[in-house]
Each structure stands twice: as structure tokens, then as C-alpha cells.
Amino acid sequence: MVTGGARGIGAAIAYRLGLEGCRVAVIDIDEEAARYRIENFERNGIEAMYVRADVSVEEEVAKAMDAIYRRYSSINVLVNNAGIGFSGRELEEQSYDEWRRVIDVNLTGVWICSKHAVRYMKASGGAIVNIASTRAVQSEPNTEPYTASKGGIVALTHALAVSLAKYRIRVVAVSPGWIDTSEWQIPPRESSLSPLDHQWHLAGRVGRPEDIAAIVAFLASDEAAWITGVNIVVDGGVTSKMVYMDENTIFTSLEILLQDREIVELIKTVVEKSKRGETSIKDRIRGIIDSN
Q1: Which are the catalytic amino acids?
Q2: What is the pTM of this model?
Q3: What is the pLDDT of residues 170-187, one digit of tens each?
């Protein structure tokens, strides 16, 4: 079972698990997108079904689990992927309703889905994989609801792992970094990323949904039988990278962004002359613009 499996990372996970031989159940609130995705899976030889449910509504989740079990007679893997974003408004402007909705879907939904899946999983064991985020340990301004929800998933993961060990159910969190989901939208979109977006990563590129699907497929398999209760960061090396905002970093970033070393060398010259008081950066840039 993959919650939020109609688009983006969830769709890639569901597809990869299907290719690995799983019978796939997608839980999502977007009926049109989910039915498109199921048709695509079936065309590729994957046995799949769709059940509509809002993961934050316990009654809907309970009915969804029942429907999946009735069709497949077992539930072995649950991927808690469903999640929503945030408004980006400053703290003083964030509403309680927004906070509650993000927490309800992103965090409480994991608890609800796990609670009801376990009823069917505990007889034979299995794996629960929770999709968290590097936002659990890193933040941008004005992301409080989302960051709190993802941090909560990491904590909930080890709590579930301890509680469910007696049923031979492993629980693991995966924290993706920056993932470009353009190709897994409906319809697929062109990526709008810049060279700088990719080069920021130690791996040399922004992540793809397939990267997350690959680690989830491994964690759901018997090969990961000794992995439980942990959070695995999959972010192309970004959280390992110490960044100092000096001139070299800025000039390197400009060269990647502009793809033109000559322009960057010209900018360096302008900066050096400005430091020596020979000319101001503003006047020099104006002169370059006027000459062109």
C-alpha cells in the first residue's frame, strides 16, 4: 500500500514496488490522477487497485484497509507517503487551521494508517516505510507546520519500530532531500531547474522520484531484514555539505548559473577595482550596460 501514490514520489514508489512483483494498492484523494496511474500500472503488467481515502480521517482509512485486504487477502508493506505542503506565510500570519491540516495529514495520517494496517500485518510481519524529509533537521524560513510534521514522522518511526517488533514488523523512515517530481505529475511537466540547482548537490544533480523508490523497494525487501527504527537520509549529500558564504562560493555559483567564465572574470575585476576605490561596482556595471 502506498498512500499519496497517484503523483510524484508516491507514484514512483508504487510503480517500482509493482515492478518488483508486489500487488499494489494506491490510497489517494485525487480520484482522476489515481485512476490514470492505475491504468498506467496495469498497462505495464502491474496488478493494482485504487482506494479513495483521506489519510487524516480514521473512518476512511479503516474502510480502505478493509477493501485492500478483501481483494488481496494480505497486507505486507505500507508506505506512508501522503503529505501536503505549506503556505510559506510568516509565523504571525500562519493560521491554526493551516497548522492543524498539515499536521493531520503529514503526521497523524502516518499514525492512523499504521494503526489500521497493523491489524492485517501482524499475522505475517512486514515493513512500514515512512516518507519524512530532510526538513526534519533543516529549515527554511516560514516552514513551521511542515517541518514539525516531518520531524514528528522521524520520532514516530522509532516509536512504532519498538512497539511493532514483537509482530516482526520493521519500521523505517526515509528523508528525501530536493526531489524534482516534474515527470511524475499528471500530465508530466518539463523541469525548470537550473545548473546551479544540480551543482549544489555533492552527487551533481537534484534527486528524482526513482531515487527514493529504489531505497524504499530495498527497505521493503527481505534484504533489509536487519534495518528498523532508523531514518535514512537520501539527499545527494546536501546535509553533509558545509557551506561558507565567501567570494569564491559566490563566483563559483555565478559561473554555474551563467555558464560563462568570461562574464564572471569581468565581475571579479569590477569587484577588485571597487575594493581599491578605483570605481564603484554600480558605476562600472552602468558603464558596461551603456556600452552594450
Answers
A1: 146
A2: 0.87
A3: 999 999 999 999 999 998
